[in-house]
What does this fold into?
Amino acid sequence: MRSITASLALSQLKQNRKRTLITVIGIVLSVAMITAVFGFAASGIEALRDLVGDEHVKSYSSIFIWMSAIFGSIVIIASIIVISNAFRISATERLRQFGILKSTGATRRQILKIVLHEGVLLSLIAIPAGLVVGLLVEWLGTSIGDTLLEPMNKLLNNEAVIHMQFIFHLPSVLLAICLSFATIMLSAFFPARTAAKVPAMEAIRLTREFTTKGHKARRHRLAQLLFGFEGTLAAKSIRRSKRTYRAMVTALTISIVLFLVCGSLNTQMTMTMNQTYMNIDATSLMYLNAGKQVPLPQLDTLTEKFASYPDTELYTLQYDSRYTMSADDPSINSALETVDSEGNPQDVQVSLITVDPTHYAELCKRAGVPAGSNILINSTQQTQNGKSTEFQPLQFTGQTLTLRNQDETLSVPLDGQLISTQVPQEIYNSSVAPVKIITTDAAAIQALWFATSLDPEGFTQYAADQLSAYVDADTAQTAHYSYSAEDMTAVTAMTRSLTKLITIFLYGFVGMLSLIGLTSVLSAISANVQLRAREFAVLKSVGMTERGLRRMLALESVMSALKSLLYGLPLGSLAMYLVYVAITQQDAFQFIFPWTLLLEAVAGVFVIALITTQYAASKLRGGSIVETIRMGE
It folds into this structure.
């Protein structure tokens, strides 16, 4: 036989079907997110198990466990805020009913049980539905993830591939059920306890929810100045019902912060990828290092073999980085570090660079010097006090530099200079030496070939074979050589796919979390209009029009949106900078404030405000003014 408290809870859910539906949707989304997060973690662990084996998977599984714990905690905290607000609204709507029950002998425990029974009934409906939605999200996410991992698998051996597969992991599902139920009941408990403590007479008179607790309401002069009489009423209403609006502002603030973090993370990852691959457009990259301080032999022959591949263009660079210039050279910029960690003078590293004839002629034209000239690349980057700065390492006067290599001395006259914006990234980013000089007769210790081919995969394999044959031919130096041939299109596609995978997951996470917050906003607006029915009736009786009421509700939504932006934008900006610091560590690139993201966040918040305004306005229709004032409903 069903208890009276359970019957009252069921009756309340049936009477307020729209609010119940909105609350169920919020809980379903919450359960779905918890289920999906744990499911993705289980799928990730299984993918690693196939890659590294059972023996080593434990070393990596902790990463997925911690990530699922972090994301799950965010979902649970946000869900408690949102769902708790829905139960508080439900309890507030029924304060008069609770007061009548108390006056007839009901105890606090019984009042508490009524609200908790609502939580149990909603759990029976929402948790199974949320599990189904969460498993569908997991299936969709793993399918998209497996598609995006294809570029990575192309770079791996056939036996070492990563596949994301949908896995029904029973322990994860059971954990999601338990945490979801605990979240719902915890969300119901605090509003239930508060409602149970309200004295019977206060509950019957409905004086608890709309009180200013001992001080006069402030005059909202700014609101009145900007928005008139309706603005004053809206500001006072927000202050009176601050609990309701606090939950709305909190939900919107969390969404703003997470949206900015996700957008910033996507930007930072893209910039990191560009920095890693030097912002070049080549399809293949070949690298050869002698290993010992001796020149590489017969590089021109190797270059000719690379160039013989059909439909392929080369950008060839040869480096001699054995030379240094004295720290006492008067042409060195004072900003350049010329001392070691102990304060002793330290010679400045110099890189002599030989470029293939075609691109060398172009550089001479840019520098305004004749062929055969030595060109100083007078730009370098240096990290000082945690900041990366670009400056000119030398004061260029057309001087002759004296370079040293052990006992050897080399005089290099400088005929012209170029700065970073005038030099292709292939040259500027491929050497870490602060002083770079383009010359025509450097003895190559290292060599780089940037190739643009219509057949990147075929050319990369061909280049790898040529490098291997070159190294094997020089038996005296074979042990010291290091070389590589990379398909840049495949590497870039892999990196972009991983970036896209992370971005889709994060934006999906933020999107669902925002939908949970939106259910709280809609529920709060709906209940707020119902609780203030007498107030609206009185305002109508003294001459306020339907349009004025709509304007007042719109201003309440706008003010809540502005308040959420006031909190969300600074917190989101701080979070974006922390993401930047975490990714770059040593400030590999400059932090660029994403104003576009901020504008998108502002636009999104006001779109939500518009939706809630229209929803609230739809609740104003109908009803007799006199009957509403008399009944106080």
